[in-house]
Amino acid sequence: MKIIIVGAGIIGAALADALAGDSDVTIIDAGPAGQGATAASFGWINASFFLTKAHFELRAAGIEAYRRLNLPGPDWSGTLCWDVDGAELDQCFSDLKGLDYPVQVLTRSEVQKREPALHNVPDRVLHFPSEGAVDGERFTQSLLNRAFAKGAKLWAGCQVHRLLRDGARVSGVETTFGRVEADLVIVAAGTATAALLPEAVRMQHRPGLILRTRPQPRLINRVMVSPKGEFRQLQTGEVMMPLVAGHQSTEAAPIAARPDLLADVAFANLKHYLPQITGNWAQVAAGNRPVPQDDLPIIGPVCDGAYVAVMHSGVTLAAITGQLVAQEVLGGQMDPMLAPFRVR
Ligand SMILES: Cc1cc2nc3c(=O)[nH]c(=O)nc-3n(C[C@H](O)[C@H](O)[C@H](O)COP(=O)(O)OP(=O)(O)OC[C@H]3O[C@@H](n4cnc5c(N)ncnc54)[C@H](O)[C@@H]3O)c2cc1C
């Protein structure tokens, strides 16, 4: 079967890795691979944030699916979370426990033993030991490299202008370099997905900004979720922090202020927890999250010859998306986990 995947972000790359070898895969991207939302991502792999039970189950399966990928890159050191307290923390703990999710409540001294550099920690902190983080851009390249080894091909710098339609059927794509026929076109074009499939997908506009410090000596090991925002330290030593707290939530605040001014505020918040950080913030980067209209992923057939995979938290969901879509496309079996996330 000849398959075209539109988009070489982390979702397109995970699809290519899962489908290559058993089918003839061509990935087409308007730019270089991994430079869309994937490059702008915070990179947290988690199921502790979720919108519905089915969404939780997909995210939790997403963590397991990463492990099955068996590729280096993700750091599974877990998450410490104190953006809730009191009764809200108890509720969050019992909700996640009720879902069989790995969760503990740590005391301040237990946190300090694990993360001695962390300041201003409250009495009780949630710990999600199965969670992790990954550099989306680098991991996308690893997925693509494995797909290439199985025969997949990437056309970078090639825009897909539209899908070719033969009555109700999609038969390929029209690109910068002409028409390409395929048995199946999978659109994984992030925020641009709606432009190619307006009948199936509507997207929100959800910009985000993330700062990075200059490289620091190793300070922390886990993803931190504080009331002042999430932060984590990369392999490079840089500390990364979105400029708004709760950046994974469904709130879609427009970015009205200048990024450097927002970064000054976020950096002061970061220093509250890590006063040892030297220098000022170094970089601030903007990106647009690919968020479908109702916040939930869309993964499924659109019509004969066309399939779509678009979602926020695509870093968390990349591995499971690749695995479930391959099972459906190659084996004809739709996993029931995908049922709530079909084209709506
Ligand atoms: C600031 C921010 C923080 C985030 N934090 C997290 C997080 O902590 N955890 C998490 O799980 N998720 C997070 N996300 C979301 C996550 O990054 C995305 O859901 C994920 O990267 C989406 O991957 P993708 O492959 O679908 O899209 P993209 O990475 O955007 O890739 C789409 C690709 O399609 C290509 N393309 C588009 N249109 C065309 C066309 N017509 N022809 C050819 N190519 C085309 C683009 O060039 C691009 O390379 C965050 C996102 C942002 C912006």
Q: What would your notes on this structure say?
A:
30% of the residues lie in helices and 27% in strands. The chain has 344 residues and is an alpha/beta fold. It folds into two domains: 2-43 and 136-203 and 293-341, FAD/NAD(P)-binding domain (3-Layer(bba) Sandwich), CATH 3.50.50; 79-129 and 204-289, D-Amino Acid Oxidase, subunit A, domain 2 (D-Amino Acid Oxidase, Chain A, domain 2, 2-Layer Sandwich), CATH 3.30.9.10. The strands form four sheets. An eight-stranded mixed sheet has the order 5-6-4-14-15-16-13-17. A six-stranded mixed sheet has the order 8-2-1-12-19-18, with helices on one face. A hairpin with a 2-residue loop joins strand 14 and strand 15 (229-233). The longest helix has 18 residues, at 314-331. The radius of gyration is 20 Å and the shape is globular. The mean pLDDT is 96. The protein binds flavin-adenine dinucleotide. Flavin-adenine dinucleotide (FAD) binds next to helix 1, strand 2, helix 2, strand 13 and strand 17. Flavin-adenine dinucleotide binds next to helix 1, strand 2, helix 2, strand 13 and strand 17.
